[in-house]
Amino acid sequence: MGTGYEPLLTLKPVAEEVWIVDGPAIRFCGMPFPTRMTVVRLDAGALWLHSPVHLTEDLARDVAALGQVAHLVAPNWLHYAYLPDWQARFPEAVSWAAPGVRKRAARHRSPARFDRDLGEAAPQDWAGEIEQMIVAGSRIHHEAVFFHRRSRTLILTDLIENFEPARLPWWMRILARRARITDPDGQMPRDKRLTFFGREDKLRTAVERMIGWGPERVILAHGRWYQTDGVAELRRAFRWVLDRP
Question: Do the domain assignments include residue 231?
């Protein structure tokens, strides 16, 4: 089934040393979610892969042509499904886990391995090139967000979802609209908002830091991402928490 973001499993240039790969849909809660991986080539030439998508031999060859696959990043507890295939194809790569990933993967008996944990500060492996933080406040959803300084690209996963109605089945349009995750006003899904209840100040602090980075573009895992006006899109998508008294 197509996602509307074809061609799938193909490297697409985004900015200097940054690419995305749109993947096939994966089902979550019965709904088809299009997937998206971000690839960053670090200054030394090593590749950093965020939220790896379904792997094919052609995609593996194309990615390897860019450089050595050094880092495989599982940015939150829902984005690790395809790691085992990438780990088998690139066994030298280090796999990184956001808080909560190890626990959920073990509960679902995933064969994925995790070598190191993502923390509040970027590790030496990409410090100075990619800023990093763990968004605090949620009782469940602990997402690592990243900012590639050279290209001014903010890389999110599920903190904003922006489904284009024309690319959804009719029944999913209704659900997405109710969840407030439809383009052009995609936001954090309402169920995730509830996990921040009573701790919205921590989310506000994280969003203000993202805004302070001054992103030109914002890549999302699901739906249309923002090629321009990154700061304005953040202010719009998170107005529900930024405007709280």
Answer: yes
